[in-house]
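Hi support team,

I'm filing this because I wasn't sure whether my run with 5-O-phosphono-beta-D-ribofuranosylamine finished correctly. The job status page said complete, but I'd like someone to confirm that the output block is well-formed before I use it downstream. Pasting the exact inputs I used:
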Amino acid sequence: MKRKRVGVLISGRGSNMAALVEAARDPAYPAEIVCVVSNRADAAGLQLAKRHGIATHVINHTDYATREDFDAALNDYLQGKKLDLIACAGFMRIMTPVLLERWAGRMINIHPSLLPLYKGTHTHERALADGVKVHGCSVHYVTVELDGGPVIARAEVPVLAGDTVETLSARVLAEEHKLYPEALAIVARQLT
Ligand code: GRF
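And here is everything the job wrote out:
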């Protein structure tokens, strides 16, 4: 089977992007990471991607008057790369139908909670404040509803006595790095 061409969208650290790149080094993995795009020139993940020999590109959202204009520029770049799938990995932009419709069923995201719980930001703080005993991460399709698209895979972690945002987020992040490559493989294999 031909490996699916994947573009990764980031805004920062890029540790999940790196986990995808690492998984895709295996020739048997069903996807290859073709490019990494950031809306911020200072995203640390860009250097990480370059070190892995992956094409990087910056499209600065502040250069565009509207969300739609930014999305159109991003879409032009992604289309030019002839991608099959987009993987968002800490990409901190709300997307408009300009992108969402073009990539419907072909764009996925990783979120640090057990969706549908704790959509949005500050997920670890909110889980700790609620006193839940299980937390985790999810990979889902990106739709117009923020963090609300169909769930592809989830991984649970326990919430331990004495956990802080730091300890809990580190436990979840370790699971994210395993879950995202697994979920991308599922989606890539199913795509015709
Ligand atoms: C991760 O926690 C991810 O779930 C969320 O943003 C964070 C990105 O981290 N969407 P990184 O840039 O992949 O290290």
